[in-house]
UniProtKB/TrEMBL annotation:
Domain Gram-positive cocci surface proteins LPxTG, residue spans: 192-233
Composition bias, Gly residues: 171-190
Name of the featured protein: Gram-positive cocci surface proteins LPxTG domain-containing protein
NCBIfam families on file: LPXTG_anchor (TIGR01167)
Keywords on record: Cell wall, Membrane, Peptidoglycan-anchor, Secreted, Signal, Transmembrane, Transmembrane helix
UniProt keyword annotation of Kinase present: no
InterPro entries: LPXTG_anchor
Protein origin, superkingdom: Bacteria
Source organism per UniProt: Streptomyces viridochromogenes (strain DSM 40736 / JCM 4977 / BCRC 1201 / Tue 494)
Signal peptide: 1-24
Chain intervals for the UniProt region annotation (Disordered): 167-197
TM annotation in the entry: 201-223
Length: 233
């Protein structure tokens, strides 16, 4: 094999390994969706529209789902001091899965003045799929607990999914958790959302590329050794 051919073989092996890794990345389609919330508060009904953004990132055998509000919803007739308000929400699952995922987050880190829209911090939860395929994530009920009261805000405009994510179920299926009727979910702090490649598929792609590169390098070494042996005679 000529030097040019050996170089081409090595380049092809590296390109093949890279293409395997690229194809392993899960497909995610996120869209900011306006949600019309109708809120039941201790002092009467209120309404507010907020754009909702949902993102997913691979996390172990599941996916970290983060829900964001771009505008405040509801309000309080009195000031809510730091740490006085705790939010949580549900996300409806569709497509290859069903049920709801519960997402939670920290209490307000600053006082909220009276009669102003309540800004909701990012809420997160871990989703473990039971089936592989495209799963949709749609904003559900928002619950706000403050000063011993509970406010529930329900979407009334039948919003579409804020996220469509191609997921891969873990071996043996999902585990039970705070998800009802679908994969599992658990609360946690906010986390920068991003959609990354499937860890196991990436490892497989890298391993495959390494084997191909090692084979090409071995062929090159044997060819040089054979030529050296012939020159010695």
């Amino acid at each position: 094999m000529s030097y040019r051919n050996r170089t081409a073989a090595l380049a092809s092996a590296a390109a093949l390994a890279g293409s395997v890794v690229w194809l392993a990345a899960p497909v995610a389609r996120a869209e900011v969706v306006d949600v019309n919330y109708q809120c039941k508060t201790p002092i009467g009904d209120k309404s507010a529209v907020s754009p909702i953004d949902i993102k997913g990132a691979r996390s172990g055998s599941g996916y970290r789902i983060t829900m964001s509000w771009q505008k405040g919803v509801s309000s309080s007739p009195v000031e809510l001091g730091k740490g006085a308000m705790t939010p949580s929400a549900t996300i409806a699952l569709g497509g290859a899965d069903s049920g709801t995922l519960t997402v939670t987050g920290p209490a307000n880190d600053a006082a909220i003045p009276a009669n102003t829209p309540i800004k909701i911090n990012d809420l997160s939860g871990t989703y473990t799929p039971k089936k592989s395929g495209e799963v949709t994530f749609t904003a559900g009920v928002l619950t706000i607990k403050a000063l011993g009261t509970t406010t529930t805000c329900t979407p009334t405009n039948d919003p579409g999914p804020s996220l469509k994510l191609d997921v891969t179920a873990a071996r043996g299926g999902g585990t039970t958790g705070s998800t009802q009727g679908g994969g599992s979910g658990s609360g946690g702090g906010a986390e920068l959302p991003q959609t990354g490649p499937d860890d196991s598929a990436v490892a497989l792609g890298i391993l495959g590329g390494t084997v191909l590169l090692a084979g090409a390098a071995g062929t090159l070494w044997l060819t040089r050794r054979h030529r050296s042996a012939r020159a010695g005679h």
